[in-house]
Amino acid sequence: MSMKTTQDQLLITHGTLATFGERHEVIEDGALLIRGNEIAAIGPSAALEGSYPDAERLDAAGRLVMPGSICAHTHFYGAFARGLAIPGAPPENFPQILEKLWWRLDKALLWEDVRLSALVCLMDAIRHGTTTLIDHHASPHAIDGSLDVIAEAVQEAGLRACLCYEVTDRDGPEKMAAGIQENVRFINKVSGFRFQVPGLETGQPEALRAEPFTAFRAGSQGEALNMGPETRIAGTFGLHASLTLSEETLARCVEAAAPLGVGFHIHVAEDKADQQDSLRRSGLRVVERLQRAGILGPRTIAAHCVHIDAYEKDILRETGTLVVHNPRSNMNNAVGVADVEGMLRRGVTVGLGNDGFSNNMFAEMKAAYLVHKLHRGDPRAMPGDVVMQLAYANNAQIAARFFPRPLGELAVGAYADVIILDYRPFTPLSAGNLPWHILFGVEGSEVTHTICGGRLLMKERELLTLDEEAIAARALERAQQVWKRF
Ligand SMILES: [Zn+2]
Questions:
Q1: Integer Cα distance of 325 and 306 in angstroms
Q2: Which residues surround ligand 1, an ion (CB under 5 A)?
Q3: Ligand 1 center to 418 CA (angstroms)
Q4: What separation in Å is there between the alpha carbon of 59 and the centre of ligand 1?
Q5: Which residue of 51, 89, 131, 277 could cross-link 243, Cys pair, CB 3.0 to 4.6 Å?
Q6: The CATH number of domain 69-399, selected from 3.40.50.720, 3.30.499.10, 3.20.20.140, 3.20.20.70
Q7: What does the pLDDT read at residue 7?
Q8: Distance (Å) from CA 308 to ligand 1 centroid
């Protein structure tokens, strides 16, 4: 039969393509060819329909086609906090939030809770078009193997994630050692799939961008549509925060991580308490303390960086350390507002995370856009194009530390992480004003299709990989038990 389509090629037609990336274009009536796990062609619909007549078609029908969102810092394990009543007086400050909420919740999680917490977050991510997530996990009563449990959930969902376990001294030396072991075990497990990017150690983004991602290929093109974990799962070394890590523990983590060639993922100066603790312990501010310990570098993620001074910003730039801004979490915890623009001006790469809030990065972008204006009393603060830089270009740079192909853009050779949104602009839409359409118009709930690595995970708002009702029902059961233990 001549009607047969080429199974590993999907042609999305008649969309308004917002490419992001270097191309930075809005293409009306555009088309995009997905071959295997990557984007193989982009152009006008008529041209691509002519060139690829046998490809399976997906008609975007005038909808917006964009790269999937990247979340550069999250905590799947926090899912069951939603609606949870904290006994006693409400927490007055950040240390009390940790003690009264998070350090009690993570201790209440057993294996099945770790799995379900991840699954409900992953469903939320697919629904809102977030295709890559960098997670920071803690479950002190289910440490060994916890990252495998999460990795399996990520594979089941069909998304892409970088995982780590938060090492901390707060639960005693045995659990501290178990945390180190879990990072080492998991990184070794996925290390067969790790890749080297020449020039990365210089910390220069240009070196990264210039180097084609040819060092790594996931099997043949034919296998790629149903590819295994190899390019969907990555590992890094997790650390909770300076305020729960002794000098000895930091040294042990650096020693354990060195042969693995990985960096760290750590909370940095989220609250002033982290600085007070660091000065008391070491006489140094947090960033300097971490630098001296050997924690910083171009593969290390420093989440938050709310309470850092000019000298610490310089250290972050000099070491090439990646910073992740989480405005909704910072507002919720009343910890302050990070000087994101100051860090960007210095040349620090700052991306955007949700720190466990909903996996809807459009909501996080809106929060980032608003909070700096109010905080500085200046409507010129944090312009829309800078928010896009955090969410797309910089998050793509951060993800590039863990995944071998370009992400966060519609470009030939990039991962086919693509979303379609039912957004119908009633004012002109161009590459120049796209940021303000996203910030004032686009909603995560408008996502109708989510594709990750060439695989369709949601079609016309129907989840294809996860049984939403069954997972939600099971999560509800488990959440009640977690709340009882809490
Ligand atoms: Zn966090």
A1: 9
A2: 355
A3: 26
A4: 39
A5: 277
A6: 3.20.20.140
A7: 60
A8: 17
